[in-house]
Amino acid sequence: MTDQEINNQIVPEKTDLKLGFIPLTDCCVLAVASEMGLFKKYGLKVELSREASWANIRDKVCVGALDGAHMLAGIPIATTLGLGFTKKPMLTAFSMDLNGNAVTVSNDLYERLLAIDHKIASDPKRSAKALKQVLDEDKSSGKPPLTFAMVYPFSNHNYEIRYWMASAGIDPDHDVRLMVIPPQYMVDNLKAGHIDGFCVGEPWNSCAVKESAGKILITGYEIWNNSPEKVFGVTHEWADKYPGTHLALLMALLESAAWIDKPENRNAVADILADEKYIGISQDVINMSMAGNFQYTANGAPVSVPDFNVFHRYLANFPWCSHASWIIAQMYRWGQLEEYIDIRKTVEAVYRPDIYRQAADQLGLKHPSSNYKNEGEHHTAWTMQDNDREFSMGSDSYLDGNIFNPDKLLEYMSGFIVNHMKVQLKELEKFNHSP
Q: What is each CA distance from 289 to 1, 21, 99, 294, in whole angstroms?
């Protein structure tokens, strides 16, 4: 189908748009769509607005100051449920990327961890057990708990750092202090000694290394291979009012993500992001992770993460309802969500593969027929068989070897929820049944 034929089928109801983003490498899906004229190609005039925090993004989208935005995967869910002071039905029909986060710690803490287990330099999955020993030593000597930062309570950064800690028996609500800091301020706080470590997206981990402020301990990919990260989010009200505009946006973003994921384009992407209006730091630092094969050095031992940034391959842009189910499970696990909800109904109201498929069909892109998949079953690349279609997929394993089956959500949750939450599981059973 030619561009003209596509444009004749998609008629945006609103053409002048303002979209928000946070200065992170994965805002590149919006930046490239703007710089390469992809929004214009689909009849849209888009202004990109650099925002200070994820709370700003959430609130401005809710009140209509932004038409949509680069969002943490948990924001549309949390905002729909009224978690975090704002309640407004939101949805996403587009996942912007997989992976992209890391846990970075101060140089002093890294040296303490290395003294306990020198193998963490080549096997980052051992790092949580070393941290557990540091915390136990500090507690026995009467020292205050270490402080770690993440970017937002309902973020995968929060859930990843908690998952990593909990895998070694650390209680992130009692054994450490967890606080929220916007991504672009992480490195300064680490330098100042206000925090001992953080979980953030790129380029801020690489920036900490470049400025000798800390060392990357473990990446989000090593915690959960090919985990969901950002989405493009809008309110339900906006999507209902401007369905043609929404499809045009998704088509531009799909083209952008596919172009970014080609290794030969990564240098050009880093050059775009280095501009002050996007991230405003050196292209070299951005390229430390964006070049296609992220390599970080832990005490001289190189650790390579080829799939650190995934923007299109592995069905990265498909809004898997199983990803949303996992996020809700973490909300229950960590006490953020206590009301009894129909999880599947909530998931399917917020994550909208049906809208994604409309945009993909316009572009002639294949898409899966299912909205859910198991997570954690594949330790290497694999092929998804879907009727007469095949999709090349990346590994999806968790560092603890667990498997998440969205059809057995309550069974999964019972494995980590204790005490008073056992009562909640019984109540949840009244609302949730396997399909």
A: 35, 19, 11, 5
Closest CA to 201 of 248, 266, 159, 151: 151
Task: Tell whether 161 and 283 lie within a shared domain.
Answer: no
Does residue 112 sit in the same domain as residue 204?
A: yes
Q: Give the whole-angstrom CA distance, residue 242 versus residue 97.
A: 24
- Over the chain (435 residues), what is each successive 10-residue block's mean pLDDT? 56 97 98 98 98 96 98 98 92 98 97 94 92 98 97 97 96 97 97 98 96 96 97 98 98 98 96 97 94 80 89 98 96 90 94 98 96 97 94 97 92 68 56 51
Q: Is 308 exposed, middle or buried (0-12, 13-18, 19+ CB in 10 A)?
A: buried
pLDDT at residue 431, rounded to an integer: 54
- Phi/psi for 301 (5° steps) reads -100, 115
Among residues 278, 354, 373, 329, the alpha carbon closest in space to that of 70 is found at 278
The pTM (predicted TM-score) of the whole model is: 0.94
Question: Distances in Å between the alpha carbon of 91 and those of 17, 95, 302, 430?
Answer: 17, 11, 40, 25
In a domain, 61, yes or no: yes
Domain shared by 201 and 217, yes or no: yes
Tell whether 18 and 70 lie within a shared domain: yes
Please count the structural domains in the chain: 2
Query: Do 348 and 247 share a structural domain?
Result: yes
3-class DSSP state of 150: strand
CB 260 within 8 A of CB 269: yes
Q: What is the pLDDT of residue 416?
A: 75
3-state secondary structure of 368: coil
| Residues of the domain holding 257 | 3-97+228-292+309-363
Contact 201, 25 (CB under 8 A): yes
Are 159 and 50 members of one domain?
no
Half-sphere exposure of 352 (CA within 13 A, CB side): 24
For residue 134, the domain's CATH number is 3.40.190.10
Closest to 206 (Cα-Cα) out of 292, 284, 96? 284
Q: Report the relative pairing of strands 294-298 and 301-305 from DSSP bridges.
A: antiparallel
DSSP string over 379-433: SS-EEEEETTEEEEE----BTT---B-GGGHHHHHHTT--THHHHHHHHHTTT--
The 3-state DSSP class for residue 225 equals coil
> Given its phi and psi angles, is residue 42 left (phi above 0), alpha (psi -120 to 50 degrees) or beta?
alpha
